[in-house]
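Input (structure):
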């Protein structure tokens, strides 16, 4: 495959472009996390408790869907105006969200934010590749992972601070000055360096069918298990829609002159195996982000502060792994680097199977750090593999496909593991209800806990339970989470297998 062009721009301009694009990435990453601590305050103000989860879900869905579309557009149209549009969408949606007077309007704004964030996520790595020589791309990409780590650390803290000392709309208003700073950097310094495809046309049928297919798939895994049975009419209907539009997408891409995602790319080992590896690694690590806090707070009985401190290990490990690999990936090679990362990921996942209600938070911290380092290796190495598998003119599609695979793996992983946790927790809890705890919990309370496992976190529920009941409840939580850990290990092993089969780069 052809190598990526390296433009003759000054070091100062290059650094300013990198700073501007990473700032846009930071805003998108931050907004996925900054809401957490402020949501109780927002619900108090706007109401809409029954739909508040869609504040997160809407952002995730539109971000995931827009990634491959912006990637394809970047191969056809100039990158600078696309980047400007994606940043403007994010800024305008952020300002509108700050003025929201209802939960429904806030959700709509978050969905539009997700479109802008998806564009930023897709374009940042395209721009960084365009302006960097091949031997430097690993180092530059590692800065992106560092940004993710910083955002994951600052996000929840900033959200809580702003909600407590200012007002929750400033969570969104703060995006405006930072977004405008990024916009100025992109507008003033970004240059077009890569030749675009001539006479290319947008594959509207492919884009629409892909969007519906992805949305259908995401809804299946977001709603199944915890909210609806896998065999419920709603889930079966979603599967039917997903499969139907998936078939339409495949046929459209086969016929299209310039497809949104060329099916033939999946014949390239680096492209298909690299995306599969990052899908599985994201499946594993984001499942930890989703369910490890439940284990630490409930099974181990630790405070929310201890939970936050312990979970930092995943983000910090991810950032550290990327930074280390960024300096050495071109010396070690992408396949070797990804295999080492997958081994670290698998070992970390295996160690979580030793966790019990007697495990210390220090042990959890170091195990999660190992998992994070492994993810940092895999994520960085595979994006380089995927990019190197295609011609430079298809860089946008290749880069966005990697980001898309990572997002999809996270969503599918959390969805599947949510179902597994709920099943494991309910089975274990019902078992003790029929035996040791028979008659010790009011029936209405039992129904509420089984209907919504999240209710075990609510103080008004826990104060109604005796220490003995709480102990059995925590054991049931531990049982459910340990089942999730088994699934993450399976995903990590699958990631390792894919990494082993990555192509060996030519020296």
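Output (sequence):
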């Amino acid at each position: 495959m052809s190598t990526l062009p390296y433009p003759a721009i000054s070091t100062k301009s290059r650094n300013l472009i990198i700073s501007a694009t990473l700032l846009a990435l930071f805003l998108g990453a931050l907004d996925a996390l900054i809401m957490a601590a402020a949501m109780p305050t927002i619900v108090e103000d706007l109401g809409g408790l029954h739909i508040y989860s869609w504040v997160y879900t809407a952002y995730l869905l539109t971000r995931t869907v827009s990634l491959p579309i912006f990637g394809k557009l970047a191969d056809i149209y100039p990158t600078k105006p696309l980047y400007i549009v994606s940043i403007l969408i994010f800024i305008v949606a952020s300002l509108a969200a700050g003025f929201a007077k209802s939960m429904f309007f806030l959700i709509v704004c978050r969905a539009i934010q997700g479109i802008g964030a998806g564009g930023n996520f897709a374009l940042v790595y395209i721009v960084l590749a365009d302006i960097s020589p091949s031997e430097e791309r690993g180092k530059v990409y590692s800065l992106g992972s560092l940004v993710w780590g910083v955002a994951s650390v600052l996000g929840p803290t900033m959200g809580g601070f702003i909600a407590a000392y200012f007002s929750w709309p400033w969570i969104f208003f703060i995006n405006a000055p930072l977004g405008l700073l990024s916009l100025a950097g992109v507008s003033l310094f970004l240059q077009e360096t890569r030749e675009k495809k001539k006479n290319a046309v947008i594959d509207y049928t492919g884009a629409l069918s892909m969007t519906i297919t992805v949305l259908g798939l995401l809804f299946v895994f977001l709603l199944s298990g915890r909210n609806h049975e896998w065999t419920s009419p709603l889930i079966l209907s979603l599967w039917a829609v997903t499969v139907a539009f998936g078939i339409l997408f495949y046929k459209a891409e086969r016929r299209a002159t310039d497809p949104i995602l060329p099916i033939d790319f999946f014949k390239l080992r680096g492209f298909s195996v690299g995306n599969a590896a990052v899908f599985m690694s994201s499946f594993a690590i984001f499942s930890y982000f989703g369910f490890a806090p439940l284990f630490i707070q409930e099974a181990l009985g630790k405070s929310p502060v201890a939970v936050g401190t312990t979970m930092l290990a995943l983000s910090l490990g991810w950032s550290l792994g990327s930074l280390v690999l960024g300096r050495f990936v071109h010396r070690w090679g992408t396949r070797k680097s990804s295999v080492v990362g997958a081994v670290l990921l698998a070992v970390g996942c295996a160690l979580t199977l030793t966790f019990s209600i007697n495990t210390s938070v220090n042990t959890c911290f170091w195990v999660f750090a190992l998992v994070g380092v492994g993810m940092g290796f895999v994520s960085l190495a595979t994006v380089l593999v995927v990019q190197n598998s295609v011609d430079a003119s298809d860089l946008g599609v290749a880069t966005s496909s990697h980001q898309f695979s990572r997002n999809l793996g996270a969503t599918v992983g959390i969805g599947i593991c949510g179902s597994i946790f709920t099943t494991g927790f309910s089975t274990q809890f019902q078992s003790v209800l029929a035996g040791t705890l028979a008659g010790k919990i009011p029936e209405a309370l039992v129904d509420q806990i089984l209907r919504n496992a999240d209710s075990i976190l609510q103080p008004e529920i826990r104060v109604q339970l005796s220490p003995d009941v709480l102990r059995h409840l925590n054991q049931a939580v531990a049982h459910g989470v340990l089942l999730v850990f088994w699934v993450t290990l399976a995903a990590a092993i699958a990631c390792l297998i894919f990494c082993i089969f990555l192509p060996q780069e030519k020296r």
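Notes: DSSP finds 18 helices and no strands in the chain. The chain has a mean pLDDT of 82.
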